[in-house]
Structures are given as C-alpha cells and as structure tokens.
Specification:
With 246 residues, this protein is an alpha/beta fold. The chain has helices at 12-23, 52-64, 88-111, 135-157, 173-178, 191-203, 213-224, 226-236, and strands at 3-7, 27-32, 42-46, 68-73, 115-122, 160-165, 208-209. It has one domain: NAD(P)-binding Rossmann-like Domain (Rossmann fold, 3-Layer(aba) Sandwich). The chain has eight helices and seven strands, in the order βαββαβαβαβααβαα. The chain has a seven-stranded parallel beta sheet, sandwiched between helices. The chain is globular. Belongs to the short-chain dehydrogenases/reductases (SDR) family.
Length: 246
C-alpha cells in the first residue's frame, strides 16, 4: 500500500485531500493540531506546527512511519488587517507554520530517505501579487514557494519530484474567517476541486498547479500587470477589511 503524509489534515483543503487519498488506496499519515475522528486508514500525529520544539520531538516518530510516496505540506494560517493591529505573536506563528516548519520537515524527510516519489508545497495565489491587508501571510507563502522552486533539482536527484501549488480563495471556514465583510463565497473554489487538481499535479510530477480557471487568469494578470493587480487587491481586500483577524 502506498503511503502519504499530509499536514494541516483535519480541516478544509487538507481534510479533502486525505479523503481523496484514502479513496485512491493510500494509507495516510495526518499531522494537525487536533485529530479528526472516524477516519479509517489514517494515522494521526497531533502537533502544533507553530511549536518548533514539538515539531522536532515529533519528527523521528513521523519519519519512522515512512517512507512516503507522497508528501503534502498543506498546513497554513493567516493574519489579515492593518499591520499595526496584528500582534507580533501572530506574525511569529504565521511565519513558523507557513514557512519554517515545512522547510525543516522537508529537509528532515529527505535526509532520512523517508520521502520518495512526490512532494507538494501548498503556497498561495498571493505568490503572483502584492497582498495589502495580508502582507505577512503573502510573504510567508512566497518564502515557501521560493523554497519549493529552489529545492526542485536537488530533490529530483534523489528521486523526489517537487510540485508548487498556488490555490486561490477556497470555500472553507478558514477563508471565510479572513475574508472582508460581504465577500461572496460563491466566487471561491470548492475544496474538493482544488484537492483533486493539486493531487493529480503532484502525482504526475508537474512543477506548478494553480487550481481553477479564475485563479489561473489572476496569476497571469499578476505576472503581466503586477502594480495594477496589487492596486485591485488593495480595493478588494484591504479597504474592505473591518477588523484584524489572526
């Protein structure tokens, strides 16, 4: 039986990925702050990925459950609002969960030979634009994206393909919590669609996946007209934020 490792596996996109992988015959090791009940074929590791000491203690046990045919670094947190209203602790947690921890885990898995086949780093559509109102979130996800691009060749030499996934807003509780007041959730992509597209890309060794037609058009616009798209994001998000959320 093939084995997969998914972080941020209890809610939203991660939960949907776990369900799809089980349908495809994978045994899944799931890492999250809490375990989801009633999932056959899943081994849960409960760990706060913002706590580096806890992550370091977990890694030897996690590596012992491998090797993994697929690794998906999906866990992520956000912080939205005016930067002066977001506390320093929120920045620390965001940068640790979104950037530092997946880099540390990826390096540990590769050193131990516990990853084989495919690895996927879930960044964000913000990789293609400025993100007024969520600057630290965008910075952390961009750091992860650059890391994924940078390790692609050395990981490939060890038999592991690297896929960078940049989903846009999804129809999840997390996205709704950080969205501006009055945002239309119908414009967000269903997690099941995003999960399927991301997993298919990772398992076929694609370098980049931007799930959803609207997200791909946005990414293209961000590359062609970055300043205009950043101004649009300011009007769409920053100017409509009624509160800081972290």
């Amino acid at each position: 039986m093939k084995r997969a490792l998914v972080t941020g596996a209890t809610h939203g996109l991660g939960r949907t990925m776990v369900a799809l992988l089980i349908e495809r015959g994978y045994a899944v090791v799931a890492v999250d702050r809490v375990a989801a009940a009633g999932r056959n074929g899943v081994t849960d590791f409960v760990c706060d990925l913002a706590d580096r000491d806890a992550v370091d203690r977990m890694l030897p046990r996690l590596i012992g459950t491998g090797p993994f045919d697929l690794v998906v670094f999906n866990a992520g947190v956000s912080a939205t609002g005016r930067f002066e209203e977001v506390p320093a602790e929120a920045y620390r947690r965001l940068l640790t969960v979104n950037a530092e921890t997946p880099m540390v885990m990826a390096a540990a898995l590769m050193r131990a030979g516990a990853a084989r086949g495919a690895m996927c780093f879930v960044s964000s559509l913000s990789h293609f634009t400025g993100y007024p109102g969520a600057a630290a979130y965008a910075a952390s996800k961009d750091a992860l994206a650059i890391y994924a691009i940078s390790v692609r060749k050395p990981f490939a030499r060890r038999g592991v393909s690297v896929t960078l996934a940049c989903p846009g807003p999804l129809r999840t509780e997390h996205a709704a919590r950080h969205a501006p007041d009055g945002a239309d959730e119908n414009l967000r992509l269903e997690p099941a669609t995003a999960a399927r597209l991301i997993l298919d890309a990772a398992l076929t060794g694609r370098r980049l996946v931007v799930p959803g037609r609207n997200a791909r058009l946005f990414a293209l616009a961000g590359r062609i007209r970055p300043q205009a798209v950043t101004r649009w994001m300011r009007r769409l998000v920053f100017e409509r934020l009624g509160r800081a959320v972290w």
